[in-house]
Structures are given as C-alpha cells and as structure tokens.
Amino acid sequence: MTKNTGTQGRTEQQQKQNPSVLDNFKPLLLDVAVPLGSYYLLKDAFGMSTFAALAWSSVVPALRTVWGLVKERRTNALAGLILVVNVVSLLLSFVSGDPRLMLAKDSGVSSVVAFGILVSVWLGKPMMTAGMKPFLVKGDEAREAAWEGLVSGASVRSGAFRSKERAFSGVWGLVLLAECVARVVGAYTIPVDTMVWLGSVFLVGAMVIGFVVSGGLAVGPMEEMLAAEVEAASTGTPEVAVAA
C-alpha cells in the first residue's frame, strides 16, 4: 500500500512538472471554447432557438464565475466576460426584423469582449493573461516562480515583462474591436447574402492577426525573459530590481 501511494505521488508530481497540452490549455477550453462550442452545437446541431442556446451555453461560465468567487475568493475574468457576453447576446436576441440589423448585432459580442479586455489593460489587470500564462509556464515550478517574480516587481525585468503582458491583451482588444467595426460596416454596405458568410471570415482573420501580432510583440519576448529569469535563479544570482 505504501509503495503504491508513493508511486501515485510521484506520478502526480510528474504530471505537475510535465503537464499535457490539455492541461496547458484547460483554462481557455473551460472559459471560452466550451461555452462558444456548446452554443453552436445546441443551435445548429440540435435546432434550439438562439435564446435557448445562449441560455444553456451560459451555464459553464456562470458556474466557473461563482466557483471563483466562493472557493478561490477571486473573480474568474475570462469566465465572467463570456457570461456577460452571453447576457448581452440574450438581450440582443430580442432584436429582430431588419436582416442588416440582425447581422450588425453580432458585433455586439466582439465589442463587449474588446472593451472588457481594453478596460482590464487600463486597470493594470490584463484579462488575456489568464489564457497566456499556462502556455508560457507549462506547469514548470521554476517557470512559475520566475513568472511570480516578474509580475511582482522583484526582478529587473519586471517593468518590461508587465509592459509586454499589457501589450498582449491590448493587441487582442484592438483586434476584436476592429473586427466589430468591420462587421457593422459590412452589415450596412455589403449584400446580406455575402455578409452572412463574410462575417465568419472577419472573425477568423481577426484571430489570425491577433495570434501573429501578439505572438511577435509580446509572447516571444516574455518567453525569453522567463527563460532568462529561470537561468539566473538556477545559477544562484537572481537579478533583483533596485528602487529608483
């Protein structure tokens, strides 16, 4: 029994140090992919109304938000934002009649997300960090410690690191806001039949631009700073920030 317990403990420790791809992207899957995917599945595959699909797809982000408040004593920013988006979409689902207005209202989702992200940057708590951190830290304890040192201001690289952190969220906020504007303009200037499929092209294009720009502007430099911080800690010469 003791041997099995020890083996299980080592296995759990290895999983923490070498998490799978699923572990790295679990926050994004639960907070974003599951709600959005369930909406389209319920609406297109099961034929539910827009209102019903939005309502049921709000269950996961609602539970995640409540769990964060009750158990972790903090708000789950991504889950909360998706919940707000779904509520806004539920309200907008009552708008009907004009096909161009129906197309334009889809931009309401992007606009809520975009403004939420940009406000979080302005407040100094960039929202997209929750999705980026697992990808960079990869469950490694040394990288986790390096991350905490960088965001806490304890490192000489802290200022640059936090600047890139804000830049990452800023890029996504601006990209989604641009996608929102493009949808509204397209809804009233492009033939309805064309805009029905072109709206998806706008979204995919925005995602590609967001990944490319934020990756080069923020993710790459942040990964380099994390590696440098880990190396400095491993040699026993951590570079501590000096107050001006």
What does this structure look like?
With 244 residues, this protein is mainly alpha-helical. Helices cover 80% and strands 0% of the residues. The protein is built from 12 helices and no strands. It has helices at residues 2-17, 21-24, 26-45, 50-57, 59-70, 77-92, 99-105, 107-122, 129-137, 141-152, 158-189, 192-234. Helix 5 (59-70) packs antiparallel against helix 6 and helix 7 (99-105) packs antiparallel against helix 11. The radius of gyration is 21 Å and the shape is elongated. Mean pLDDT is 74; it is low at 14-22.
How is the main sheet built? none
Q: Alpha-carbon distance between the termini?
A: 57 Å
**Poorly predicted ranges:** 14-22
Share in helix: over 70%
Beta content: under 5%
Average pLDDT works out at 74
Structure class:
mainly alpha
Number of helices: 12
What is the approximate shape? elongated
**Number of strand segments:** 0
Helix-strand pattern: HHHHHHHHHHHH
Radius of gyration: 21 Å
Task: Give me a quick take on this structure.
The chain is mainly alpha-helical and 244 residues long.
Features:
single chain, 244 residues, mainly alpha, 12 helices
Describe the SSE topology.
Blueprint: H1 2-17, H2 21-24, H3 26-45, H4 50-57, H5 59-70, H6 77-92, H7 99-105, H8 107-122, H9 129-137, H10 141-152, H11 158-189, H12 192-234
Helix pairs in contact: 3-4, 3-5, 4-6, 5-6, 6-8, 7-11, 8-11, 10-11, 10-12, 11-12
